[in-house]
Design brief:
- This protein is mainly alpha-helical and 384 residues long.
- It has three domains: 56 residues, Classic Zinc Finger (Double Stranded RNA Binding Domain); 81 residues, Orthogonal Bundle (DNA polymerase, domain 1), CATH 1.10.150; 205 residues, Intergrase catalytic core (hpI Integrase, Chain A, Orthogonal Bundle), CATH 1.10.443.
- It has 14 helices and ten strands.
- The strands form four sheets. Strands 3-4-5 form a three-stranded antiparallel beta sheet, with helices on one face. A three-stranded antiparallel beta sheet has the order 6-7-10.
- Strand 4 and strand 5 form a beta hairpin.
- Helix 3 crosses helix 5.
- The longest helix is centred in the middle third of the chain and has 20 residues.
- The mean pLDDT is 85.
- This is Site-specific integrase.
- Keywords: DNA recombination, DNA-binding.
- InterPro entries: DNA_brk_join_enz, Integrase-like_cat_sf, Integrase_catalytic, Integrase_recombinase_N, Tyrosine_recombinase_XerCD.
- It comes from Allocoprobacillus halotolerans.
- Belongs to the 'phage' integrase family.
C-alpha cells in the first residue's frame, strides 16, 4: 500500500511522486505492468478501478495494440504481402498518415465507430477518393484485428461507402466513331482506338499487347497478360496476370488484321534501326516486346492514352460536333465492341468469352441498344 508525501495511506497500487502527481499501477491480463497518472487522488482511484475492469472485460483478447501500432503491423505483414503495386501501397500509407496517424495513439479496443466516421468525413471534405481510401483501409485493418482476437468486433464495417457519381455507359455510334477517328492527327493513335473498338480489349491489355500474343496466320491474338498500372521500384513497367487471371483467344476481323500488320511491321523496323536508341536507358525492360509504344519507344501508360483520347475528343467538340455518346473513355470501346457483337447475332456466352468475363451476367452490363440499331429497329413498328 503506497503513501502520500504527507505520509497518508493512498491505497493499493497508488503512490505519489515528489512533484505531487499520483501514480497508479497494475498488471494487466497479459502480464504487462500498466501505469496511470493524475493530479487528483480521488480521480486516479476511479481511473484505476475502471482500467482494471476494462482489462478483465478484454479477457478473450490476446494482444494490446494502439491503432497506429496495429496499422503498422497490418500494413507490413498483410498488405505488403498481397502483391499490390508500390504506388497503391504508398497511397494507403500516405492517407493514413494524413488523416489517422495524429489520433491513432489510442488503445485499439477504445476506437469507436463514431471515431472512424469522423476521420472518414474529414477525408471526404478533401476528396471522395481520399475518403473512400481511408474508409477501406480502416475497415480492412480492423477486420484483421477482429480475426486475430485483438478487438471484439469490426467497428468500421457499418460505415457505408460513399456513392460515386457513376457515368452512364454508352457505346459509340458509327457517326461518333467516324468523328473520333477523323480527329486523330497521329496514325498510331488512330490505329490504337480503331483496334480497340474491333477487339474489345481492356486498356491494360491493349497497351501490354506483345509480339508473342499475336498469330497473324491464324488471325487471332492470345491475351495472357496485361501491363501494370504503375512502375515497380526501379521505374519499370511490367507484365501481370489478366484481370480474371485467365488467358483467352480473341479472333481478329479484317480491319483489326490490317492495323496489326501495319504496326508490327513499323515496330520491327524501329527495333532494327534503333530509332529510339537515345532513350534506351529510360526504357522499361518489356518495351522491346510491345507492339504499341509511345514516341520514346517506351511503354504507353494509361494516363498517356487517356490524355491522347481527351485531346482527340475535344477537337471535334471545338468544331461544334456533339457526340451521341456522352462519356467517351477507353472503356467505351469495350462497350462498343460488346454491343456490336450482340447486334451482329452473337450469343451472350460467346461475347462473354471474347471479353474475358467470368459470367454472362457481367457481359450484359456491357451490351446497350445503340442509336444505329434503334433507328433500324424503329422501322419494324410498321409490322405491328
Amino acid at each position: 500500500m503506497g503513501k502520500g508525501l504527507n505520509g497518508t495511506e493512498l491505497g493499493a497500487g497508488i503512490s505519489q511522486r515528489k512533484d505531487g502527481i499520483y501514480c497508479a499501477r497494475y498488471v494487466n491480463r497479459l502480464g504487462k505492468r500498466k501505469y496511470i497518472y493524475d493530479s487528483n487522488l480521488r480521480r486516479i482511484k476511479q481511473l484505476l478501478k475502471q482500467a482494471i475492469k476494462e482489462d478483465k472485460e478484454k479477457a478473450s483478447l490476446e494482444y494490446d495494440y494502439t491503432l497506429n501500432q496495429w496499422f503498422d503491423f497490418w500494413f507490413e505483414n498483410y498488405k505488403k504481402k498481397e502483391g499490390m503495386s508500390r504506388r497503391y501501397l504508398e497511397n494507403i500509407s500516405h492517407n493514413y498518415d494524413l488523416y489517422v496517424r495524429d489520433v491513432g495513439d489510442i488503445d485499439i479496443t477504445k476506437f469507436k465507430n463514431i471515431d472512424a466516421l469522423r476521420i472518414v468525413k474529414k477525408a471526404l471534405k478533401v476528396s471522395k477518393t481520399a475518403g473512400e481510401t481511408v474508409r477501406h483501409t480502416l475497415t480492412q485493418m480492423m477486420e484483421k484485428a477482429f480475426l486475430n482476437d485483438i478487438v471484439r468486433k469490426n467497428v468500421c464495417k457499418s460505415i457505408d461507402a460513399q456513392p460515386r457519381n457513376k457515368t452512364i455507359k454508352q457505346p459509340l455510334s458509327k457517326r461518333d466513331e467516324k468523328m473520333l477517328l477523323k480527329g486523330c492527327t497521329n496514325q498510331l493513335h488512330k490505329d490504337m482506338i480503331e483496334f480497340n473498338i474491333n477487339t474489345g480489349l481492356r486498356i491494360s491489355e491493349l497497351l501490354g499487347l506483345s509480339f508473342d500474343e499475336v498469330d497473324l496466320d491464324k488471325k487471332f491474338i492470345y491475351i495472357k497478360h496485361q501491363i501494370s498500372d504503375y512502375p515497380d521500384d526501379n521505374g519499370n513497367y511490367f507484365f501481370r496476370e489478366t484481370k480474371t487471371k485467365n488467358a483467352r483467344y480473341v479472333p481478329l476481323n479484317e480491319r483489326a488484321l490490317i492495323i496489326l500488320r501495319r504496326n508490327i511491321k513499323l515496330r520491327q523496323k524501329q527495333l532494327e534501326e534503333g530509332t529510339h536508341k537515345r532513350y534506351y536507358k529510360q526504357h522499361s525492360d518489356i518495351s522491346k516486346e510491345l507492339i504499341f509504344v509511345n514516341t520514346r519507344g517506351d511503354c504507353f501508360t494509361r494516363a498517356g492514352f487517356h490524355s491522347v483520347l481527351a485531346y482527340i475528343k475535344d477537337r471535334a467538340i471545338e468544331d461544334g460536333y456533339r457526340y451521341d455518346c456522352k462519356n467517351i473513355s477507353p472503356h467505351t470501346f469495350r462497350h462498343t465492341f460488346a454491343t456490336r457483337c450482340m447486334e451482329a447475332g452473337m450469343t451472350p456466352n460467346t461475347v462473354s468469352t471474347l471479353l474475358g468475363h467470368t459470367s454472362v451476367r457481367m457481359t450484359l452490363h456491357y451490351v446497350h441498344n445503340s442509336i444505329d440499331q434503334f433507328n433500324d429497329d424503329i422501322v419494324l413498328i410498321e409490322s405491328i
